[in-house]
Amino acid sequence: MNAWRTRETTGHESPRELLPRTEFDDLLGRVGDFVRRVVIPAEPAPGEYLDLEVRDDLRAQAKEAGVFAPHVARRWGGLGLPVAQWPEVFEAAGYSPIGPLVLNCMAPDEGNMHMLEQIATPEQSEQFLRPLAQGDVSSCFGMTEPHPGAGSDPSQIRTEARKTETGWVINGEKRFSSGANLAAFMIAMARTGDEGQATMFLIPMSAPGVKITRQIHTIDRVIDGGHPYVELNNVEVDDDAVLGEPHRGLEYAQVRLGPARLTHCMRWLGLAHRAQDIALDRGHERRLFGHLLEEHGIAQELIAQSEIDIETSRSIIRRTAVLLDEDFREGTRLSSIAKVHCSEAVYRVIDRAIQLCGGDGVSDELPLAQYLNEVRPFRIYDGSTETHKWAIARRASRRRQRQLTERTPDRTG
Amino acid sequence: MNAWRTRETTGHESPRELLPRTEFDDLLGRVGDFVRRVVIPAEPAPGEYLDLEVRDDLRAQAKEAGVFAPHVARRWGGLGLPVAQWPEVFEAAGYSPIGPLVLNCMAPDEGNMHMLEQIATPEQSEQFLRPLAQGDVSSCFGMTEPHPGAGSDPSQIRTEARKTETGWVINGEKRFSSGANLAAFMIAMARTGDEGQATMFLIPMSAPGVKITRQIHTIDRVIDGGHPYVELNNVEVDDDAVLGEPHRGLEYAQVRLGPARLTHCMRWLGLAHRAQDIALDRGHERRLFGHLLEEHGIAQELIAQSEIDIETSRSIIRRTAVLLDEDFREGTRLSSIAKVHCSEAVYRVIDRAIQLCGGDGVSDELPLAQYLNEVRPFRIYDGSTETHKWAIARRASRRRQRQLTERTPDRTG
Amino acid sequence: MNAWRTRETTGHESPRELLPRTEFDDLLGRVGDFVRRVVIPAEPAPGEYLDLEVRDDLRAQAKEAGVFAPHVARRWGGLGLPVAQWPEVFEAAGYSPIGPLVLNCMAPDEGNMHMLEQIATPEQSEQFLRPLAQGDVSSCFGMTEPHPGAGSDPSQIRTEARKTETGWVINGEKRFSSGANLAAFMIAMARTGDEGQATMFLIPMSAPGVKITRQIHTIDRVIDGGHPYVELNNVEVDDDAVLGEPHRGLEYAQVRLGPARLTHCMRWLGLAHRAQDIALDRGHERRLFGHLLEEHGIAQELIAQSEIDIETSRSIIRRTAVLLDEDFREGTRLSSIAKVHCSEAVYRVIDRAIQLCGGDGVSDELPLAQYLNEVRPFRIYDGSTETHKWAIARRASRRRQRQLTERTPDRTG
Amino acid sequence: MNAWRTRETTGHESPRELLPRTEFDDLLGRVGDFVRRVVIPAEPAPGEYLDLEVRDDLRAQAKEAGVFAPHVARRWGGLGLPVAQWPEVFEAAGYSPIGPLVLNCMAPDEGNMHMLEQIATPEQSEQFLRPLAQGDVSSCFGMTEPHPGAGSDPSQIRTEARKTETGWVINGEKRFSSGANLAAFMIAMARTGDEGQATMFLIPMSAPGVKITRQIHTIDRVIDGGHPYVELNNVEVDDDAVLGEPHRGLEYAQVRLGPARLTHCMRWLGLAHRAQDIALDRGHERRLFGHLLEEHGIAQELIAQSEIDIETSRSIIRRTAVLLDEDFREGTRLSSIAKVHCSEAVYRVIDRAIQLCGGDGVSDELPLAQYLNEVRPFRIYDGSTETHKWAIARRASRRRQRQLTERTPDRTG
Q1: Which 39-78 residues of chain B touch chain D by CB within 8 A?
Q2: Contact C397 D314 (CB under 8 A)
Q3: Is C287 near chain A, with CB under 8 Å?
Q4: In angstroms, rounded to a whole number, what is the distance separating the alpha carbons of residues C110 and B276?
Q5: pLDDT at C3
Q6: Which of A393, B162, C81, D4 is most buried as measured by Cβ atoms within 10 A of its Cβ?
Q7: Cβ contacts (< 8 Å) between B300 and chain C: which residues?
Q8: Domain of life of the organism in this record (chains A, B, C, D) (predicted)?
Q9: CATH class held by domain C250-406
Q10: What gap in Å lies between CA A273 and CA A294, rounded to an integer?
């Protein structure tokens, strides 16, 4: 049971059943096949963005192939998989950098859908979740702010929502609002009380006072809709724009983040797998100093290290996904560790693939340099490696003290 | 289903059932409690060996506590856990360096028991497995030989068994025969044909011609019975000394090694966990430059890295253990990767704990330096990190080629 | 004495004198000042190229400031520093990504000038070296070829030069011909005999048969003139186009490469230093969780690791530079080790700076992501890390055997 | 000029001259030859201590060979080399773990001699330095105390010296007093005022009130005389027992530590070199899977990484040694960085050598496991890696701020 859900009154979802193994294998086969047959041939050149019309056409094919929105409940048009069965599907989708977008399980929409499913009212779900799940619109998440505001430390949030009689007036500035350029709405966090008191709001991007200002050019390409600054200038919303209960925004953010950082791991692991395959193919076709590249020991060292990175990432992702269904609190703890390990590991795998491919690896002859730029920011967003390490260490120290004083067993999920 | 067993006629075991979760949690609680309450207080000083009488007394208590021989079938006196449930139990036992010995799940006996259960005839089982499972005798495994003989490359085996009318005459020399000084019998590999043709024999250490010669002093302490050279000089055995079928010895060695290297990971992970706890306790009690050690960021860096090493190890161990029950071939592939990752990770964890404990870490004020010496050889035995990496890389290259030519799906266990 | 030069008859240079310490300190001060005052304000935005007119204007100022072409002999218009005094000057220039271009000590021109000084005839020097040294023209180096041709293994060269009565006819294809788009001439390597027999030619880019074909888009920006494919189609040259003696091209390549890869290290170390300063500035201005970023221990860990990377790089660069003047053979051996260490180290330093700067680090708010792309290829060109490691290991094995058999002392430079 | 010495009135030494290159090469040849011919054959078995009589006999031979006490001024019986020429000699001595002891340049005596030369009065020098330099007696250094006392943070010193009319009464407890069991005297630090006010005293171990209490067993073997606790119980000394001026003890400790941690680097680098040679020899003699071990790429990876570790260590050691003569303050800054890099690097080199030697590496068949235990504590003593990193980071931040505010040039030694 999702521990978080048990503490909640707003959870509308009953726990999902695992798809039986043979059906799941069949689904996985279809996803893999779809990615190879349909998605990969449609990939844009390195450094380019996917054309929106092409995207929509691919999405239509994904629906037909029965691989669309695998993480969303059936009632909203998805495949209804429990979190425990996301890892293999998301990894298969992520084998193409545009795969998750095509299957509609890309950030930030995927995390937003998951949170809406957990917290939104039926009316909010109809208005925001349904079109999002069907790929008719896209969304963004408004958390990060210009310094000094919410960043590594979310409690520094400065955007404020002031209560009026029938609703709220919101003022503030967000940045790194991934996807905002194309989004129909933003899920925005605003301070509604003392430190630690924040509320989530559903705000249409067309609402008066919402304004996209400066674009930030970043090195990734696969998150549609840019990473701009967004101004919220006296934005007025009704009470029913509140997502969940007021003042519990920071708590809800965890509901979103625990799984959301893990789904990043799943998707990027797929890209790491792709990079490793590109390197293996090169290793099998290039001849150096009289031997195939793959037979050179120092190349084998790189290949083996990447295998280890891939399999340890796979292992902690899958264990964490099961935990997120069974014990949300422990799952969130582990997802923090998984995030650090996987974000560093997938970076290393792609980096090694580049070494194995030599000059072509750092040029557009191969997509690897772009892959590296794609995953580089993941070591920073959703909590940087360093911020997580700091939290991991403090959590470890506290858990140990608790064990010693309470003599509680040291069970591990 | 154990894929290996399905190919075999000699497998006497039906697949084991998972212990229901509540019973399993209860067992885990008992093991943890027993280790803390009984085993840890009886640990020898760093650098010393456990006294044999103390060991036997502790074992008697372990039987009483219902935690003895967790991996052995009930009919031979064990707890009958499937491999999928070994990781948590073995880790809990390994929290003390002598825990696995006390619970009778230490190498090399544990691997020998596992193999005997899979391959031995009922008569062989009564004679060799039963007393081993009950802790009445111990055993050794005779594989490694002086150079140039079986080492990293087992096919170089030079010990030879010559067929006679009613049995075999065995000649050769083994070394690093862990446990031989105390063993009642050796499971010895001998060449019985061309390269790749070897047979396993059950040889009492008291048999004429078996002679322990030179002792090799190593840096570990927790494997009882030393690591001596053993001479096999015209050792005569009957046909019923053959374990399994003749000429399939190298194949059987894989049956032993796949799980055996994973159980090492499980046990040593327990010791890494112990080292981390010792470091956390130090971090909570020492004050430096005006702050608790655990509050210094560079200490937190070490603590966090160790948490990541511990949790990634735990994750790949558990996934591999499940696979060894479900798909033995894939489980063996993954156990090779797990072995490299875990052996390096547990070493790093203990090494960091030493740094956190300063001068006491490299002296007998704490057991950490001995722990480091305990796990150092694990990066070498059961296939060194480098040998495994070489195999991992070649396996990755071949799998990729197979996928490309057969267009087989790239499923991962 | 340059050991290589002693074997040569074509060396026109007498060994250079060290600039006295106070004059050298004065020069260093001028370079640092010039870079900060003139060069940095003129840097193009991340991802952009330096405008050629701006470049020429900056170069004029560099000449005026007495910091132009520090590595070139005075008679050709440079400052005449011996290799031992290049490290600090090149590092100071490299503090700006465009600094070396402005000071005319950027690859590939810098390495070409150095080689021309060593090998060219007086006439060739007048024609090619003088305008290059004065920054009136630029050049390229034609070594790398499409697979299977010269790459990691230069002996695989396929471009061929056929002797005619009065000259040569050259046919082949080069790629990654850095700078070719703007170059006035190419120093091209062509096979002129059996394996290991190649000759270097001075070829004007305007010569009939020389054709730039496909551009390769790479992730760096600071090497002017692209990295295109260049076709050599029946290119006819006279005998005086031969650089040095015929058939000794591979040997000369070492003359170029030993110092050339070390000057890369020097320049990129400057950029690493810059990245570290950007990170330190951020650490001093950002406040997180109630403390300055620079006071957080996990940030200090990154800063300290980068300091270590910078200082070890500095140390091996300076020692190698001295050796290249004193003992060219030993200097070349060490420059291979320095290349691996420094290319990996500068990459890590910039990578850590990005972590320290968070989201701004992976966007155009800061130039760091571009710096990372700038130095990424250096782990590949001039011999990849892996190719060098392979050579380093074999050299170590051979040296040890030589010592054992000849009982030669194991002196280190 | 030694920057520290210029601030001092007690420095009796004029700056030393470099030995001319040919004489120095000759000396180096003699040291290398002596170590190979005389010292190595006399090495004790792994885990054993060098017999004192054997030591004295070897020392007599070292004197005869003209290689004794290379770092001590000629007037005290040494060879009088300036610090800049220590690195190669100390490394050559350290090629055997007992080499430095035999040449009388081992810790803690070597550091004590260096400090006495800098600070002691002529009378103190006659009484303490002369017999030490001649190897007639040994010494210890009393700094570290039981927690909470002087450890990573020397200002926490608790041993106190109270002024009497004609001298001092000292009370306190020291631990990790390396060498105390055999020492004739201790240079002890005691608090003589507020925090940061401490004084150094020369105390004969036979003085009433000096008592060696508990021995601490550590994993190293080559520092003679153990690492015991030493009680100072109302120890009375005269005023002339003060080393240097009163209250400047912490400052003098830096005079000792800067060079002392660098000489550790030099000596241990010699042992790393030895381990690499042992591994190279093994690589040349072992055949695996049809090839020499040294031809396997994954072995080459290890060999190359160790070459890089050795050469970067050599480079920063030599640069730092030159600086310690030229600019003591900058030299001390760099010696902190060198200490971290070298202590970690030599550990890795020996660790890799063990991997290359397999089972023999972790047993007494080879001395490598003992070498690893020998260098493990060096990552902790003289400032642990973590303590140094913390200091390195803070120093980097401060230096950057200074540059920005004062616009001072950022010169590097």
Answers
A1: 46-47
A2: no
A3: yes
A4: 53
A5: 34
A6: A393
A7: 297-298
A8: Bacteria
A9: mainly alpha
A10: 17
pLDDT at B193: 87
Q: How far is CA B357 from the centre of its chain?
A: 29
D291 contacts: CB under 8 Å, gap ≥ 6 = none
* Domain residue extents for chain B: 3-133, 139-247, 250-406
D209 — contact with chain C (CB < 8 Å)? no
Q: Does D293 touch chain A (CB under 8 A)?
A: no
Greater model confidence, C148 or D23: D23
Checking if the pLDDT of D314 tops 80, the result is: yes
> What is the pLDDT at residue B91?
98
Please give the interface size between B and D, counted as residue pairs whose CB atoms are below 8 Å apart: 113
Neighbours of chain D (3+ CB pairs under 8 A): A, B, C
What pTM value is reported for the model?
A: 0.95
Contact D296/A at CB under 8 A = yes
Pull the structure tokens for residue A72: 């969303």
Q: Which residues contact B284 (CB under 8 A, 6 or more apart)?
A: A397, A400, A401, B292, B293, B294
Q: Does the beta-carbon distance from B412 to A277 stay under 8 Å?
A: no
Give the whole-angstrom CA distance, residue B219 versus residue B223.
11
CB A225 within 8 Å of CB A195: no
Question: How far is the C-alpha of C256 from the C-alpha of A366, rounded, in Å?
Answer: 29
Q: B108 preceded by cis ω (within 30°)?
A: yes
Query: D152-199 pLDDT, tens per residue?
Result: 778 889 999 999 999 999 999 999 999 999 999 999 999 998 877 899
CA dihedral angle for residue B362, residue B366, residue B367, residue B368, rounded to 10 degrees: -50
pLDDT tens, residue by residue, B114-160: 999 999 999 999 999 999 999 999 999 999 999 888 887 788 899 99
C297 close contact with B: CB closer than 8 A = yes
d(CA D128, CA D105): 16
Angle at alpha carbon of residue A258, lines to A254 and A260, rounded to 5°: 110
Residues of chain D contacting residue A304, judged by C-beta atoms under 8 Å apart: 298
Taking CB atoms and an 8 Å cutoff, what residues of chain D touch A299? 297
Architecture of domain C139-247: Beta Barrel (2.40)
**D139-245 topology per CATH:** Butyryl-CoA Dehydrogenase, subunit A; domain 2 (2.40.110)
* Contact with chain A for residue D300, Cβ under 8 A: yes
Position C78 confidence tier, pLDDT thresholds 50, 70, 90: very high
pLDDT band at A220 (very low <50, low <70, confident <90, very high): confident
Residues 106-145 of B with CB under 8 A from D: 144
Query: The domain A251-406 belongs to what CATH superfamily?
Result: Butyryl-CoA Dehydrogenase, subunit A, domain 3 (1.20.140.10)
The interface predicted TM-score (ipTM) is 0.94
Per residue in D270-309, pLDDT (tens digit) is: 999 999 999 999 999 988 878 889 888 889 999 999 999 9
Token pair recorded at residue C267: 């320049």
Do strands D291-292 and D210-212 pair parallel, antiparallel, or not at all (unpaired)?
Answer: unpaired
The total of other beta-carbon atoms located within 10 Å of residue B164's CB is 12
Which token pair is B163?
């067929």
B93 contacts B99 by C-beta, under 8 angstroms: yes
Query: What's the CATH code, domain A3-133?
Result: 1.10.540.10
Task: Tell me how far apart the alpha carbons of residues D337 and D323 are, in angstroms, rounded to a whole number.
Answer: 13
Q: What is the pLDDT of residues B25-49, one digit of tens each?
A: 999 999 999 999 999 999 999 888 8
